[in-house]
Amino acid sequence: MKKIVALEELALFGLSIFVFSQLNYAWWLFPALLLVPDLSMLGYLINNKAGAISYNFFHHKALGIVVYLVGLYLNEQIFLLAGVILFAHSCFDRVFGYGLKHYDGFHHTHLGYIGKEK
Question: So what's the pLDDT on residue 38?
Fold first, then answer.
């Protein structure tokens, strides 16, 4: 099942690359911005719950979709870019098994445990 999920997420990541190609931005911006949503992990400096909340907010694919739709509605390229990057990053993470986090720690995700299990 994990391989099927990874393939699905890889296809969605490919879709995000296609959508990015329709925007008026240089190609180098895509890889340059792809890891920016990981700044949300800074919430773990407070505690596991704050970390999980901030991580999950910025790694939920619906956020990327909503931001992108706001960009379409407002006809603002920066929102389109932000939406694509948020969506692409979430898909990219899930290809490697990094899912949304539970409150008990970074390694417990909705896709199972990452790293060494306890």
Answer: 93
3-state helix, strand, coil in the chain (%, to 5): 70, 5, 30
- Nearest CA among 89, 97, 74 for reference residue 20: 89
Question: For position 116, what pLDDT does the model report?
Answer: 66
Q: Contacts from 70-79 at CB under 8 Å and sequence distance 24+?
A: 77/23, 77/24, 77/25
For 72, residues 6+ apart whose C-beta sits below 8 A from its C-beta are 80
Cα–Cα distance measured from residue 92 to residue 1, given in angstroms and rounded to the nearest whole number: 17
DSSP conformation class of 104: T
Give the integer Cα–Cα distance in Å for 118 and 95: 22
Q: CB–CB of 34/64 below 8 Å?
A: no
Single pTM value for the model: 0.90
Residue 80: alpha-carbon gap to chain centroid: 15
